[in-house]
Amino acid sequence: MWDSSNPYSLYFRIIQFALNPKAVSIPEVTGLDWRSLYEFSSGQALTGVVFGAVEKLNDKRIDKTLLLNWFAESEQIKRRNVDLNKQCIRVIDEYKTAGFDCCILKGQGNALLYPDFYKRSPGDIDIWIKDANRQQLLDYLKDKGKNLIGMHYQHIEYVENGIPIELHLMPCSDNNPLYHHRLQKWFKDNSQDNWENWVKLPDGEGNVTIPTTQFNIIYQLAHMQGHFFDEGIGLRQMTDYYLLLKSIDLPNGRKDIYEKTLRYLGLYKFAGAVMFVMREVFALEFSRMIALVDEKRGKSLMEVILKGGNFGRESGITNHNKFSKFFIKTKRSIGLVVEYPAEALCEPFFRFWHFVWRLV
Asked: Which of 169, 236, 267, 283 is the most buried (most CB within 10 A)?
């Protein structure tokens, strides 16, 4: 288990307390440095989630100015969620009306799993368009006068009403060509229920389509692995995945029903590392894990999470220019070859190919 003397251990117990509305075991917070907890939660994009625990703990020793600032940020997160709900409903309706089958990836769909929907820090809007044709989407965006800001292999990005929107041609990609091909085939073969999987968003006065839970188990793991090999991954994404795993029932804790798929898609090693984080940070029950805990890779992943924060923004990689980033990321990939040879060896080549592809 994670070293209980580690200062992060108390932070983890507070996160567990925040995510379990029926929790009866209250963390002992005597002597807790509340500002350090605030800075940690902010770096991991868990400001609202952890504030939920602060509200429940109601500790009178917390600095009043810090408490008021934390409350204000939590309220801002709530307002952004309300606004994003309305935008998601509007965007889904727009593309459905235009004849595109589509669904919302991650984001507001994940927020539905939280004890308090409004505590999750929202990002942009990701929409997966079924059988998308890049030129067809570009023509549509041009015809509608959309503000196009980016073109990637996976998606096209534009801004509307101040919110970045990504139109995905595929949910995510893989650095390894073989696993990428298998992953895209798996997405196509297992997405048939996504396009009509309607859910109601609170305060949005409407519904959106999101992927099924079983689809998300594989997709969101692949998405996290992609970010892990890019600039990093943080606890917000891990929190999403923890709540996703809590929402499924594995018959008699049968991990083997996922093992074949995870190995086929090249995700099994990373899944074992993620299960270590699920155990140490969230105390996830063994019966809900989709792979055996991999302590060695898990500790390496935990180090990336704790040092890098949300999407690796605390690691310093994002502060360099593109030329420097290329060599920093390549060096990092080389350091991961022993643990993830198939993915790490391909990562610099995929990144270089993608750079040339975007130029062309």
From this structure: 267
